[in-house]
Amino acid sequence: MFEIKDGAFMLNDKPFQIYSGAIHYFRVLPEYWRDRLEKLKAAGFNTVETYVCWNLHEPRKGTFDFSGRLDIERFIRTAQELGLYVIIRPGPYICAEWDFGGLPAWLLKDKNMRLRCNDPIYLQHVSDFYAELFRRLAPLQITRGGNIIAMQVENEYGSYGNDKQYLDKVHEIILKNGVEVLLFTADGTSPSMLAGGGIDGVYKTLNFGSRAASAFKSLRGIQDNAPKMCMEFWCGWFDHWGEKHHTRGYQSILHELESFFDQGAGFNFYMFHGGTNFGFTAGANHGGYYQPTTTSYDYCAPLNEYGGYTPQYHAIRKLMHEKQGLPLGELPPEPKLQSIGKVHLTEQTGLFENMDRIGEKHYSPMPESMEYYGQNFGLIYYKTTVHGAYGMSTLSLRELHDRAYVYVDGKLKKTYDIAQKEGFFKRLRKKKDSLVLNLKNPETELGVLVDAMGRVNYGEYLMDRKGISAAYLGIQTLMDYEVTTLPLDNIEKLDFTRGAEKYPIFFRGTFKADSQAECFVRLDGFTKGVVYVNGFNLGRYWNTRGPQKTLYLPGALLKEENEIVVLELEHCDKPVVEITDKHDLG
Fold first, then answer.
1. Known catalytic membership, residue 156
2. How far apart are CA 230 and CA 270, in angstroms?
3. What interhelical angle do 311-324 and 250-263 show, nearest 10?
4. Which residue in 263, 311, 393, 396 has a CA-CA distance of 20 to 30 Å to 208?
5. Shortest CA distance to 187 belongs to which of 209, 207, 201, 171?
6. Is 578 a catalytic site residue?
7. Which residue in the list 58, 156, 305, 570 is annotated as catalytic?
């Protein structure tokens, strides 16, 4: 039994302190779970914390997936085998710099959907998912012989809203599904966040990255006779495309860690091991303009993206053992690295040449968002025909939230990029959101290819549908569309005999690997796109933005003979990649 008693955490009637680190099972291949958890324990931690990603577990309404990288039960049991306790943060919203904050994209098909509030339709979806999730997690609680000691209600809700009825309903749904362990909320230290996110009778924890000595004072008069707990101690930070790679010196981390021990406070390192936003799972922020997150979620964490030790790991480990009076034992081995060298991509085929093979066509009088057509990730292509010689006309798009390529009679005419540090009116003056065309022919084909760069995961712009909602020539609404959804999860259907007349282009090559050591794909000469190895989507690259220069290629994916496919959206100097042992995040 784990509980709060007389102002302290008690485990089986003995005082217990939480020393936790965050590792998200869905950001790490299952082949590495035991290794990462062993390294967490070897650093002197006794607990692992993880979010739950609703969007991957229920990719379509009523269709659930808890296999492979999503086998959360296996992750929890592995932790128990190693003597670690587990904290679960099941959302439904998790933020986490994860697409749509972990909410499933299909929620956005309903144009009347209201998120994270006391809306009965939304709450029914939450209830349906929780029934499936907690059916699996309930037997793993410490009250039933497992190692789950606590679970969170919602997530940083005080940073979003103040609907107490909603929080109470989520709390009720969790209890209804057999959750018996300690429940808590987690919010920032400001009065508004604590007021908006707190629930009467539910333990309150804090999220912060500095000033631990004074941060807990924010709970005075709100929660006095309770242990102190920082549920997210931000020991690093994440990266957006177009920004510098974030780093943090370990001396400042040690200073805060000393303060936690001095106060007798518990903590959860966010992140202890960040892992990778494989595929299209990276989210985005909106701080006045759209800010997509990089593929790497290294986070400057004690364990780096591929599970290697960092200077901060060794410094933290030393202090953790000193404070607990534990002897320093042997560490699990460092990951082995390998450099395979340059790989020539000798085959190529175009995206447009393969739309009939990897896409699904829909017909709409007006363009709808990606979610309307049942698509979660990838690209979407809108095509319509303008009948008549319009002459000089201005083409503009509506509700484009990230990046799009406009084609006129099959030729690229403009790239729209919302991920720029400019306000709307400044962009308008520069005519960055419009295109002037001289339409002389009786018929003109217009096409818009939207690259969904990740849904916003935090703040007021959470309702981030992908695609466009309308296109205009002057004041005239363009209608009658052929829409092709391209989730890019079926590249095995590509026909490389079809060639390519224009970008986007798929390039393919093969390479041999003598081991399953870790490595990284470097794409010098490429511009922007996606990489697949043996059919697994490693994630996005964007060389012209940076900071990330290599994509992590887990050795567990490698075989003796391997296939690599690169989807380049814009331009490639030479179709050659390098598989290296150098991890380069900029």
1. yes
2. 10
3. 20
4. 311
5. 207
6. no
7. 156
Give the span between the Cα atoms of 28 and 25, in whole angstroms.
Answer: 5
Q: What token pair was written down for 45?
A: 């931690």
Could you tell me the strand order of the sheet in which 411-417 lies?
Answer: 360-364, 481-486, 379-387, 443-451, 403-408, 411-417
Residues 6+ away with beta carbon under 8 Å from 470: 366, 367, 397, 398, 399, 477, 478
- At 313 the three-state DSSP class reads helix
Helix ranges restricted to H, 349-471: 355-358, 424-429
Which position among 232, 305, 353, 371 bears the catalytic label? 232
pLDDT in tens, the chain (586 residues): 999 999 999 999 999 999 999 999 999 999 999 999 999 999 999 999 999 999 999 999 999 999 999 999 999 999 999 999 999 999 999 999 999 999 999 999 999 999 999 999 999 999 999 999 999 999 999 999 999 999 999 999 999 999 999 999 999 999 999 999 999 999 999 999 999 999 999 999 999 999 999 999 999 999 999 999 999 999 999 999 999 999 999 999 999 999 999 999 999 999 999 999 999 999 999 988 999 999 999 999 999 999 999 999 999 999 999 999 999 999 999 999 999 999 999 999 999 999 999 999 999 999 999 999 999 999 999 999 999 999 999 999 999 999 999 999 999 999 999 876 655 445 444 445 689 999 999 999 999 999 999 999 999 999 999 999 999 999 999 999 999 999 999 999 999 999 999 999 999 999 999 999 999 999 999 999 999 999 999 999 999 999 999 999 999 999 999 999 999 999 999 999 999 999 999 9
Q: Kind and range of the H or E element at 484?
A: strand 481-486
